[in-house]
Amino acid sequence: MRERLIQLVEQELLPNVKLQAPVLNNPIVVQEVPDGWECIGRGNYAAVFVHRQFKGWVVKVYAHHYESVEKEVSVYHRLGVHPAYSKLIASGPTYLILQRLNGVTLYEAVHKGIPIPESVIKDINKALEYAKKRGLNPIDVHGKNIIMNEGRGYVVDVSDFYKKGRDRKWKDLVKAYYRVYLPFIYKYRLRVPYWLLDVARHSYRFYRRFKK
């Protein structure tokens, strides 16, 4: 099965998918997807696809910054096997094949009013501590790359874990979880519209730049 999926990636997906990155530091644009494939996620560097015959695995295809593929592969090798992280199945010069982690992102959960239990936060805290012990630097961890499923938390993007520097996104999110989310949004089962979430996200970015 693994070899068949690699064949489909290299003979069907890569030659026919069209990705563009028109705006720096914004999600790439997926212009065309071949038959049998579905795009299930987009980031600033890559898009994630699933084939209808292999729904347990996903393919992450980079649109640029191809040198980052090898670095992300090295991150997965360092992580090894851990319940909060995906598993690397295979890789090529511009793609990775990973175990699919099912669930809803924290971002979507807040929007839809789906309760986020404290167990999810604790799972991610433990997962990030584990990554540090493996010699990694877990940065750029935020509500769009954390998913939850049946009360468990998972990290779906580790592509920046090899980088140096400090990052407060997760620490600030945890602080907001206890100070704002639990006493208000969780308690009253509120649904937060996308526009308000985007205002909060952009305001946070401005605040962090100002603090620097």
Walk me through this protein's architecture.
By secondary structure, the chain is an alpha+beta fold. It folds into two domains: 2-99, Phosphorylase Kinase, domain 1 (2-Layer Sandwich), CATH 3.30.200; 104-211, Transferase(Phosphotransferase), domain 1. Helices cover 41% and strands 23% of the residues. The protein contains six helices and ten strands, in the order H-E-E-E-E-E-H-E-E-E-H-H-E-E-H-H. The chain has helices at residues 2-16, 67-79, 106-112, 118-133, 169-186, 194-211; strands spanning 18-20, 29-32, 37-42, 46-51, 54-62, 88-92, 95-99, 104-105, 146-149, 152-155. The chain has a five-stranded antiparallel beta sheet with strand order 3-4-5-7-6, sandwiched between helices. The chain has a three-stranded antiparallel beta sheet with strand order 8-9-10. Strand 4 and strand 5 form a beta hairpin. It is globular, with a radius of gyration of 18 Å. The N and C termini lie far apart (49 Å). The mean pLDDT is 94.
Give structural attributes:
Phosphorylase Kinase, domain 1; alpha+beta; 2 domains; three-stranded antiparallel sheet; 212 residues; 6 helices; Transferase(Phosphotransferase), domain 1; kinase; Meiotic_Drive_Suppr_Kinase; five-stranded antiparallel sheet; 41% helix
How many domains comprise the coordinates?
A: 2
**What is the arithmetic mean of pLDDT?**
94
Number of helices: 6
Q: How many beta-strand elements?
A: 10
Major beta sheet summary: 5 strands, antiparallel
Which CATH class of the largest domain is shown? Answer: Mainly Alpha
Percent of sequence in beta strands: 15-25%
Query: Percent of residues in helical segments?
Result: 40-55%
Provide the CATH topology of the largest domain: Transferase(Phosphotransferase), domain 1
Q: Residue ranges: pLDDT <50 for 5 or more in a row?
A: none
